[in-house]
Automatic annotation (TrEMBL):
<dbReference type="Pfam" id="PF13361">
    <property type="entry name" value="UvrD_C"/>
</dbReference>
<dbReference type="GO" id="GO:0033202">
    <property type="term" value="C:DNA helicase complex"/>
</dbReference>
<keyword id="KW-0347">Helicase</keyword>
<dbReference type="InterPro" id="IPR014016">
    <property type="entry name" value="UvrD-like_ATP-bd"/>
</dbReference>
<keyword id="KW-0378">Hydrolase</keyword>
<keyword id="KW-0547">Nucleotide-binding</keyword>
<dbReference type="Pfam" id="PF21196">
    <property type="entry name" value="PcrA_UvrD_tudor"/>
</dbReference>
<feature type="domain" description="UvrD-like helicase C-terminal">
    <location>
        <begin position="334"/>
        <end position="606"/>
    </location>
</feature>
<dbReference type="InterPro" id="IPR014017">
    <property type="entry name" value="DNA_helicase_UvrD-like_C"/>
</dbReference>
<dbReference type="GO" id="GO:0005524">
    <property type="term" value="F:ATP binding"/>
</dbReference>
<dbReference type="GO" id="GO:0043138">
    <property type="term" value="F:3'-5' DNA helicase activity"/>
</dbReference>
<dbReference type="InterPro" id="IPR000212">
    <property type="entry name" value="DNA_helicase_UvrD/REP"/>
</dbReference>
<keyword id="KW-0067">ATP-binding</keyword>
<protein>
    <recommendedName>
        <fullName>DNA 3'-5' helicase</fullName>
        <ecNumber>5.6.2.4</ecNumber>
    </recommendedName>
</protein>
<comment type="similarity">
    <text>Belongs to the helicase family. UvrD subfamily.</text>
</comment>
<dbReference type="GO" id="GO:0000725">
    <property type="term" value="P:recombinational repair"/>
</dbReference>
<feature type="domain" description="UvrD-like helicase ATP-binding">
    <location>
        <begin position="38"/>
        <end position="333"/>
    </location>
</feature>
DNA sequence: TGTCCACCAGTTTTT
DNA sequence: CTGGTGGACA
């Protein structure tokens, strides 16, 4: 997908070509080739063939919506109803966009070039860059991620002493984000707020200052990308008319996740264009035809402003809309679907929908209750060994959890068991300090107005430019109404020591040198910046072994920029920065690499796996404690569980623990209310949740204590005895210095394991650091152990 | 200015 | 248990 970012060749000029047909044409075009319709079921086929102003495809999980969407686009192209450049397809992730483009290309080949298949954010960036000059921005603007936003807010809050009022960067960021997603700006919000409230007044002031800083830095935050595009289209009718005329067919994926700003964007783009709005337009043009695909049962982003009413009210919003339901599922077994249907059926207030499949019941859902999170993780690892032993690939297996904190126990056990895995999302590469430093250098070069990035690198590596010096520079900048960067160039006019002044001048000269070459190869720019700034040297000289790893990361980033340039010949620094700002967790997932995928339930949406583990199915985790107070919280959490269940094709595992460790404290855990909602006969409990923990019963869950459901009684078996020996030290077992690489092991050897007790080695495979022992323990069963780090001794 | 240490608070999901 | 912050000292 080399043109994912649409560098060049976006076919905008094709607007000038004759328009094949307006939207809602209907019959004048040729028939859709049978090849594009073959193999579709009746509603799918109708969804591909229907023509009209608006179409809502209610696509249940696994009902083939991507197929429908891509065939629909291919149909528009194949019949010449639309030029590629007249199609705008919007997704939420780059991965979804890439997949769609690829599949359309497979269907119609080169024909598909020039389509806009992009995420909301990248489409908006595209429009904003193109029109930047029009409304007073420079097209070199950069994008602040949530870390940048927090850093900036932190400074602003502190500067005004607003921290004592209780305003936190996180809280303010969330409020601003929410407001922007509802298309408020500072002034419109101020009108609705009661400014008698000192907290609101302080918030408003911070927000105003924050926006001003962004403007000065020539930067947008994430929410601005959408809302500013909407404002742009509203404020400049001629610009709006251009895009309305250009995009004749607009398709939106995951429509249930759109927020108010995104909805407004769609509305703007689907307005008709009247004669006279554009000089070369001879006739009135109807609004673009709109196709949206979504499933309100999979709406899990309300916390981010997604408004489920956008999809439930679609028919009212777009008169003449057609609604098509896709309910046949091609992904999962009937057992999995029955569980999913039963769970989601507890959400009232939804359009009834019933997923079904004709592919058979499949295996039962496997349930497990562990003593602790580690015990649960061990179950996951054991099952994975079992599954892969039966021929399943690691990459066909995924483990889901509600919160990122849950990965620790899982990772620890997976490492110990030598199961290759990958954490999707989580602590990301781009969040590491050294990567942020390196990126800040690039941002500073690309966007000299950005003071935030400049501040970050000003004294990294150490140049003797401390807070006092920085403040002096800033004061000079404010006084002369210039940027911080300009102030650095005029350092001679500021009374500073000669050493400091020299350091500042050197840095400014280095940055300016590259700023002057915006089209240079980003990889080269980064390599030179890192070496000439002394950044790499500083890491290389450091005695701290961690710095060696940091150096590697910086080199990895250089490799990434090189790869970017290779994929996008001529791609500029700004292009690279835009790409990296807009990557989402799910984008990291490339199907290559035989690894188990670990991710949050949110990240899992839109993906599918042969075998799925949903862990931590407990109260306070799923549903999460924080959701309890929010309106619609429990229902949204239920949808989240539903999304998780429906990711599984063949095998589904639900697990929980009786105790959960958080902050080093161990707390009792209670089975999730959602477990009760799954019919008992669908689950095969290896170890059922017990009702023995009277102390752990929360008030709201009387049922678990008072009238335990049959499923837990019939499935009941005595849990295995706790491993003996000294109390468990799970935490940090991995980082503990242990190196068994010298240990000779062979089949038949007897060993003792810290947790599992004594056992017999069955086989040893792998080499050196990757040596894996398969051991049959006397009480704990069969386990795989990574010899190098296993807490074992030979007997 | 830089470094070290002790204390503190905050912990959901993320385009 | 983590990361961030602020103070004390070199």
């Amino acid at each position: 997908m080399s043109d994912l970012w649409g560098l060049g060749d976006d076919g905008f000029e094709e607007v000038q070509r004759p328009t094949p047909l307006g939207a809602g044409g209907g019959s004048a075009h040729g028939a859709i080739p049978e090849a594009l319709l073959a193999g579709l079921n009746p509603p799918q086929r109708e969804a591909v063939e229907h023509r009209g102003p608006a179409l809502l495809i209610v696509a249940g999980a696994g009902s083939g919506k991507t197929r429908v969407l891509t065939h629909r686009v291919a149909g528009l192209l194949a019949t010449r109803e639309a030029w590629p450049s007249q199609i705008l397809a919007i997704t939420f992730t780059n991965k979804a966009a890439a997949e769609m483009r690829e599949r359309v290309e497979q269907l119609v080949g080169e024909e598909s070039r020039g389509m806009w298949i992009r995420t909301f954010h990248s489409a908006c960036v595209r429009i904003l860059r193109r029109e930047a000059e029009e409304f007073g921005f420079k097209d070199s603007f950069t994008i602040y991620d949530s870390g940048d936003v927090r850093a900036l807010l932190k400074r602003l809050i502190k500067e005004r002493g607003a921290d004592i009022t209780g305003l936190t960067p996180g809280g303010v960021a969330a409020r601003i984000s929410k407001a922007k997603n509802e298309l408020h700006d500072v002034d419109s919000w101020a009108r609705t707020a009661s400014l008698d409230n000192p907290l609101d007044a302080a918030f408003l002031e911070i927000w105003r200052e924050y926006d001003r800083e962004l403007r000065r830095a020539n930067a947008f935050d994430f929410d601005d990308l959408i809302s500013q595009t909407v404002f742009l289209l509203r404020a400049f009718p001629r610009v709006a008319a251009q895009y309305r005329k250009r995009f004749r067919h607009i398709l939106v994926d995951e429509y249930q996740d759109t927020n108010a700003a995104q909805y407004a964007l769609i509305r703007e783009l689907t307005q008709p264009v009247s004669r006279g709005e554009l000089p070369d337009l001879r006739d009135d043009l109807p609004g673009a035809s709109l196709t949206v695909v979504g499933d309100s049962d999979q709406s899990i982003y309300a916390f981010r402003g997604a408004d489920i009413r956008n999809i439930t009210d679609f028919e009212r919003d777009f008169p003449g809309a057609r609604v098509i339901m896709l309910e046949q599922n091609y992904r999962s077994t009937q057992n999995i679907l029955s569980a999913a249907n039963a769970v989601i059926g507890n959400n009232f207030d939804r359009r009834a929908k019933n997923l079904w499949t004709d592919s058979g019941d499949g295996a039962k859902i496997v349930g497990f209750t562990g003593y602790s999170g580690h015990d649960e993780a061990q179950f996951v690892a054991d099952e994975i060994v079992e599954l892969t032993g039966g021929g399943m690939a690691y990459s066909d297996i995924a483990v889901f959890y509600r919160t990122n904190a849950q990965t620790r126990a899982l990772e620890e056990v997976l490492i110990r068991t030598a199961i290759p895995y990958r954490v999707i999302g989580g602590t990301k590469f781009y969040e590491r300090a050294e990567i942020k430093d390196a990126m800040a250098y690039l941002v500073t070069v690309a966007n000299p107005a950005d003071a935030l990035s400049l501040r970050r690198i000003m004294n990294v590596p150490k140049r003797g430019i401390g807070p006092a010096t920085e403040a002096a520079l800033q004061a000079f900048a404010d006084e002369h109404d210039i940027t911080l960067r300009d102030a650095m160039r005029r350092v001679d006019e500021i009374a500073l020591g000669p050493k400091v002044a020299g350091a500042i001048k050197d840095l400014a000269a280095l940055l300016d040198e590259f700023s002057a070459r915006p089209d240079a190869d980003p990889g080269e720019v980064l390599r030179e910046l890192m070496s000439r700034s002394g950044y790499t040297d500083q890491l290389r000289r450091s005695p701290d072994p961690q710095d060696a790893a940091r150096l590697e990361n910086v080199e990895e980033l250089i490799a990434v920029t090189r790869e970017f340039r290779r994929q996008n010949p001529g791609g500029t620094l700004i292009d690279f920065l835009t790409e990296t700002s807009l990557v989402a967790a799910a984008d990291e997932l490339d199907d290559s690499g035989g690894q188990v995928s670990l991710m949050t339930l949110h990240t899992a949406k839109g993906l599918e796996f042969e075998a799925v583990f949903i862990t931590g199915v407990e109260e306070d985790l799923l549903p999460h404690r924080m959701s309890a107070n929010e309106p619609g919280g429990p229902a949204e959490e239920r949808r989240l569980f539903y999304v998780g269940i429906t990711r599984a094709r063949q095998r589904l595992h639900l697990s929980l623990a009786m105790t959960r460790a958080q902050f080093g404290e161990v707390n009792p855990a209670v089975p999730s209310r959602y477990l009760e909602e799954i019919p008992a006969d669908l689950i095969d409990w290896r170890t059922p949740p017990t009702t023995m923990r009277a102390s752990a019963q929360p008030r709201a869950l009387g049922r678990w204590r008072d009238e335990p459901r049959e499923q837990f009684v019939t499935g009941y078996r005595t849990p295995p005895p706790l491993p003996k020996g000294p109390k468990k030290e799970f935490a940090n077992t991995i980082t503990e210095v242990r190196d068994n690489s010298g240990l000779e092991l062979a089949a038949g050897d007897r060993i003792r394991h810290k947790d599992f007790g004594e056992g017999t080695v069955q086989a040893v495979t792998g080499l050196d650091k990757k040596r894996v022992a398969e051991v049959r323990f006397d009480t704990a069963g069969r386990k795989r152990l990574l010899v190098k780090i296993a807490p074992i001794e030979k007997l």
